[in-house]
Specification:
The protein is α/β, with parallel strands linked by helices and about 150 residues long. It has a single domain, classed as 3-Layer(aba) Sandwich (Rossmann fold), CATH 3.40.50.9200. The chain contains five helices and five strands. Helix 2 packs across helix 3.
Length: about 150
């Protein structure tokens, strides 16, 4: 992975950029040095004409370029039909789905949604990035935390 070959991600959305979990994904991705990605999700581009088919076509165009689809699980309950479509298209396109547990509170998520994910992880920058690398390109990122002790 380099700046010339960034990971291509799509984060499920409801065409509202101010969703906290949507924004949080990018805060975590940006906090990691030397991790390069291209975001193919575009919540600002809600089609104004064409109805639900135009929305679906817009989502297909966003998802088709991605290597991995990221699903903050708490977002599913807000609009199960729209997120369900995003997951359906991702699976039909053979895109791996990385589920991220709800942040800070307990949100009940249907087991069928969790079962659609290739991996489900907690909110942690290291595990999110490792999950992206593993699902998108089969990269094993066995990382160890280094703890330094001051013995003075």
């Amino acid at each position: 992975m380099s700046e010339k070959d960034p990971f291509r991600v799509f984060v499920t959305h409801l065409f509202e950029e101010n969703n906290e979990d949507y924004q949080r994904v990018f805060e975590y991705l940006e906090s990691r040095d030397n991790f390069f990605y291209t975001n193919y999700s575009d919540p600002d581009s809600m089609p104004t004409a064409g109805g639900s088919e135009a929305v679906k076509e817009m989502l297909r165009n966003q998802i088709k370029e991605a290597e991995v689809v990221i699903l903050p699980l708490a977002i599913f309950a807000t609009n199960p039909d729209l997120i369900g479509f995003e997951l359906d298209y991702a699976q039909a396109s053979k895109k791996p789905i990385l589920g991220i547990q709800s942040f800070g509170s307990t949100v009940s998520v249907d087991k069928t949604v969790i079962d659609r994910c290739d991996d489900v992880i907690e909110w942690n920058e290291r595990t999110i990035i490792s999950g992206i690398k593993r699902l998108a390109r089969n990269e094993d990122t066995a990382q160890w935390e280094t703890i330094e002790f001051n013995l003075d």
